[in-house]
């Protein structure tokens, strides 16, 4: 059953480009969350199969996803590489051998000394730009500090062949080139050293409250203030921050955009054709299906009214399923369904419900019931009230 699910997943990946549908021929799509797990399973299967047919002892073999490091006799290197490449024509390995007693692996350089011992050094590829998260980039300060601290940790842990002063100089040069100040670099280095030299195990027997993880969009000055309030009042909530200015904004969209009427999980606004009012609604299905439901209800009522006005009057309450229909029946107005606009889109239902209430609250011309915003938090109400008053 598991294999059948995997096959279904791999055979049903597709995307639309210029109106044409394309299916993934082999492997998984880039960004598919299943890819890392499958890559690891495939590599384990590959190694188990290949190593069975190799009749020489291999002193060690380490793997990180598809990167391998091992030790082999020189005359067996090509034999082993060919055995690996024969497993599957889509999986082909290249080989990098020890040069001048050095061999890079991931971001670490292994160095064989004259005493036949292995020391390591932090390694970057010759084509590396030397860029990490720049200090002046539009990201939360915590992310910049964590990036710099992570880099310091890698250099200090991996550079066993350097003195502490050499490690510090390497870190300073790298971070200075990414606009981190000297004073900040020194504080981060000292904090890292102190933390790793004065570690104490906690003997607390209390069980900490389970963590809850939430994310916030990074808005300069506003987000740090909100984070302080949340951390003070909800210590069990772990916050993450999302940058709104991403590289995606710099590049044109290669995939076709989803047509407006085929979008799901949206807040939409339908204007009235006979007055300035509008109806604001939420749907998790395709917008065209929701509009079709509105159109069907309006047409059924109109047909009944034209054929039997008395019967239509008697059954009015059956048709008043939404504020839109109440406006149609009580005012005899028509809604411009083709003029519908999408106000928001979000895959989180809770977020959509809050957004719908916010839009209804801010729109003074909406036909929606005022009770539709009764569940809106007073925090949002006060903020939206200030915004709407400021706009006026």
UniProtKB/TrEMBL annotation:
Q: Which residues form the Reverse transcriptase domain?
A: 1-127
Q: Pfam families, alphabetically?
A: HTH_animal (PF26215)
Q: Which PROSITE patterns match?
A: RT_POL
Coiled-coil features, chain-numbered ranges? none
Highest taxon above the source species:
Eukaryota
What are the boundaries of the signal sequence? none
What's the protein name?
Reverse transcriptase domain-containing protein
Please tell me the species this chain comes from: Aedes albopictus
